[in-house]
Amino acid sequence: MSVVRNAARRTLVAAAASAALFASAGGASAQETPVRHPGNWMYVAVVEGEGVMGDVQGTLLKCPPAKGAGHKNAAAACKQLAAVDGDIAKMKRADVACPMIYKPVTAMAYGMWDGRRMVFAKNFPNACVMGASTGSVFTMGR
């Protein structure tokens, strides 16, 4: 029973963190105009640890990639996002053997892809599983 409660708590933490991240970075209500970035873009962030108060690392990913812009793996991440029409949840998990070490991370993203608002938040047991599930999107050169 506690495993179910912990999983539900982590999902709620991720959703709350995603909403807070969106609001703090210029998110808009349905009646406001969102922050404009030309082309497809996503603000991607990773929170290490079990809570929202963990170490947060994030950057803006623009597609096509801009030279010298924040995301160090932008070309690969943009290609992978294009393959799933910007929907990170549709990415296929790579066939990678990850260690069974519990060092949780939460991956969060929001942005615009082909004129649609995209939001993603998911907890992973460790960074290897996150990378296998999301490709280069959250590998920001950490």
UniProtKB/TrEMBL annotation:
This is Subtilisin inhibitor domain-containing protein. It comes from the Bacteria. Gene3D superfamilies: Subtilisin inhibitor-like. Its main location: secreted. GO terms for cellular component: extracellular region. GO terms for molecular function: serine-type endopeptidase inhibitor activity. Belongs to the protease inhibitor I16 (SSI) family. Residues 1-30 form the signal peptide. Pfam families: SSI. InterPro entries: Prot_inh_I16_SSI, Subtilisin_inhibitor, Subtilisin_inhibitor-like_sf. It is found in: Secreted. The keyword Flavoprotein does not apply. The keyword Signal applies. Coiled coil: none annotated. Residues 43-126 form the Subtilisin inhibitor domain. Keywords: Disulfide bond, Protease inhibitor, Secreted, Serine protease inhibitor, Signal. Homodimer.
